[in-house]
Task: inverse folding
């Protein structure tokens, strides 16, 4: 009888009310600055920076509201000093690569939109996973710019940033 009650409880419990966002920085040298409209994604406090800063080799996860629209941009900067977390100083080492998303859970048209762009020779790869839907990667000359809009507002998003291996130089003859 207890097993039956447990199964019924699982069947009637809601699976997810809103989407989640996870940003995974697998780079050893790149900091990720997450800039959201109105600082809706990252609430500043005495221990955190606004806009959000995701240090190398770290992960941040956010629950997206099912009642609030949100747009955010992921910007990338070389981290010349491990102790340097000053946003203004990091902007001097900013890359042209960018990724962003729009989350629209309210209104007549509900959707999520993701985009990434990586110019050549910046040494990073942006992997966007729309959980259980699609994976897209920006990392080479053939897919430097990827944009996708989908008409669901409950897909969990995951951004993974990686260092690309250095190009091998041909030996001089």
Result:
């Amino acid at each position: 009888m207890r097993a039956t009650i447990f199964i019924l409880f699982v069947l009637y419990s809601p699976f997810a009310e809103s989407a989640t966002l996870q940003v995974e920085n697998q780079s050893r040298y790149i900091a990720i600055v997450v800039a959201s409209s109105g600082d809706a994604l990252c609430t500043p406090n005495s221990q955190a920076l606004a806009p959000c800063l995701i240090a190398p080799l770290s992960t941040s996860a956010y629950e997206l509201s099912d009642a609030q629209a949100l747009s955010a941009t992921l910007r990338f900067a070389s981290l010349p000093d491990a102790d340097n977390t000053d946003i203004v100083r990091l902007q001097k080492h900013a890359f042209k690569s960018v990724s962003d998303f729009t989350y629209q859970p309210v209104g007549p048209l509900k959707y999520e939109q993701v985009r990434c762009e990586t110019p050549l020779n910046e040494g990073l790869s942006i992997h966007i996973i729309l959980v259980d839907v699609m994976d897209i990667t920006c990392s080479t000359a053939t897919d430097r710019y990827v944009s996708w809009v989908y008409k669901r507002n409950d897909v969990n998003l995951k951004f993974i940033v990686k260092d690309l291996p250095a190009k091998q130089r041909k030996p001089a003859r």
In short: Helices lie at 2-12, 87-91. The radius of gyration is 19 Å.
